[in-house]
Amino acid sequence: MTLPAHTDHGGAGPVVVLLHSFLMDGRMFAPQLAAFDGFRCITVDERGHGGTPASEPFDYWDVARDVLGVLDELGVSRAAVVGTSQGGFVALRMALLAPERVTAVAVLGTSAAAEDPAVAAGYRAVLDAWVGGGAPPEVLDGVAQICFGPFPVDEWKERWATVAPDQLKLTMGALVDRDSVLSRVGEISCPALVLHGSADLAYPVERAEELASTLPAAEPLVVVEDGAHFLSYTHAEAVNPHLVRFLTAHA
């Protein structure tokens, strides 16, 4: 197995793996890296993102195995996992695949359910417009609105405009065709923290409520007022204290 691109940011404290959202890469966690003193943070570019190309269709179980492979390569036996949106999909699957290796999970703007069919159809239409039109500005603006809300992110839109169509097709396929793990979330016994923005345009707060109520060792749901979908990036000042407290107690 070819390991995904990853960065071990060092540190002698407990290991925390940071897993990014759709269309993003490990750089989205700069606000967390600046705040997570005392932890050994590892960022991973998931398949089809950043420095990790995808060569064939894949699912988030495959990505979870990729991340576990990174931990093997680094000699890390146990780690806490923080995931935003897509990263949360992967974090939950890691905890199901290797419960003995995941000390805690914190997920932001994520869901344990499969994608709503109507939403999936909309995303496929976005994919067609994106691939067919060479990343039209109005498409990039619309996707940015879903992900970041009103937060200014021109630098990310510039990066998105250079994504190869074959990579976009593969990553979008993993997103819209993912399976539900809601019926299995009760198997995840490690401490868990669920955070969600009240202004999340991708998943309603109900997705977070069902996840927090189903995870056996979850803390009370944290809803960030006016928080956008990519919550860890857009509202770092609001979420970082919750994450640091949780990881200090459970990582």
- As a percent range, the share of strand residues is 5-15%
- The helix/strand order is EEHEHEHEHHHHEHEHH
CATH topology (level 3) name:
Rossmann fold
Which residues form runs of ≥5 with pLDDT under 50? none
Task: Determine the fraction of residues in helical runs and give it as a percent range.
Answer: 40-55%
How many individual helices?
10
Backbone CA Rg: 17 Å
Give keywords.
251 residues; alpha/beta; Rossmann fold; 7-stranded mixed sheet; globular
3D architecture notes:
By secondary structure, this protein is of the alpha/beta class. It has one domain (6-114, 180-250): Alpha/Beta hydrolase fold, catalytic domain (Rossmann fold). It has ten helices and seven strands. The protein has helices spanning 30-35, 60-74, 86-97, 117-133, 137-148, 154-160, 165-176, 205-214, 231-234, 236-250; strands spanning 6-8, 15-19, 40-44, 79-84, 102-108, 192-197, 222-224. It has a seven-stranded mixed sheet, with helices on both faces. The longest helix has 17 residues, at 117-133. It is globular and about 50 Å long. The mean pLDDT is 96.
Write the layout of secondary structure elements.
Layout: E1 6-8, E2 15-19, H1 30-35, E3 40-44, H2 60-74, E4 79-84, H3 86-97, E5 102-108, H4 117-133, H5 137-148, H6 154-160, H7 165-176, E6 192-197, H8 205-214, E7 222-224, H9 231-234, H10 236-250
Parallel strand pairs: 2-3, 2-4, 4-5, 5-6, 6-7
Antiparallel strand pairs: 1-3
Helix pairs in contact: 2-3, 4-7
